[in-house]
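Dear support,

I submitted the protein below through the web form. The confirmation email said the job was done, but the results page showed an empty box. After a refresh the structure appeared. I'm attaching both so you can tell me whether what I see now is the final result or a partial one.
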Amino acid sequence: MKTNKLAPYLFISPFFILFLIFGLFPTVYSLTMSLFKWTISGPQEFRGLSNYAKLLTTDPFFMRSLGTTFILLVFGSMLQHLFAIPLAIMLNDRLIKGRDFFKVLYFLPYITSTVVIALIFSQLFDTNYGWLNYVIVNWLHLDKVKWTQNTAAIRASIAIMVNWRYIGWNMVIYLAGLQSIDDRLYEAAKIDGASILQQHIFITLPMLIKIIFFAMSMSIIGGMQLFEEPFVLLRGYETMGGAQNAGLTSAYYLLTTGFHFNRFGKASAIAWLLFIIIIGMTWMNKVITDRLQK
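What the results page shows now:
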């Protein structure tokens, strides 16, 4: 009898063991590190909340990186939903031929390696030989855009990459939500004389509120952790986000602080500040969603 009672706990124990080792322990350890001046070599000096205070007041890069992160969050992570929802609505229409082909086509960027995507876009954004500047100069007869040398252009190029990669992912999420809506609601709306636009405003969007909350929450988490795209596009730690640090996101600065400057205590403090910000933004998203549902 004792063996039978212990068996379920024995079967689920690998999960808890792995979680304690690779989940809980690193989390608590990083919180401890954030309270110290912590480097690989040399003694660890306890600083309390000094790392947090300096990041929020005197650090020359953190607030700038946070501003860049918010800009890219709006024009990269959030903007893509304005494209993903209409695409999902179109592909949900059974009258459209080749729907499965377009679903795969739009989803492919998401499963492609971020490094590969960044390298391809670095060629497209090349000032002298990039395809985009070729179109701008030869077709539109405008001056070349220095995509990786101008503040606004750097942020625009990163936002383009993020939108291109994740629109298909959000489209699939919204498509799944659309398929759960009863077709009889649309049929009743047609009988009442509602136009297609009115059907989507008064039926589709209200029925997708929970899906929109989930997708927006995922975008907030991903946008606040944006690292790979600017890191590869702007050539690593040495450039610190390119001209005027225009591409230096908070996650980019975190990794640079920890692994390039060997200041792991400060890097851990950045990670926890980002965690708090993400929690706050997700809560705000929940509040807005709840009000829209009423």
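Response: this is the final, complete result; the empty box was a page-load delay. Residues 33-293 form a domain with the MetI-like fold fold (CATH 1.10.3720.10).
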